[in-house]
Sequence to fold (40 residues):
Amino acid sequence: MKILMVLTSHSTLGDTGKKTGFWVEEFAAPYYVLADAGAI
Fold:
């Protein structure tokens, strides 16, 4: 099984001026759920 998790390092969303990026927990929480399930 392959799992792709896509993250961004951009600080703004295009020309909108809205802030973006990722919060570490947004990656870590699903990672550990998948790891505990044996998927990683």
Summary: The two ends are 8 Å apart (CA to CA).
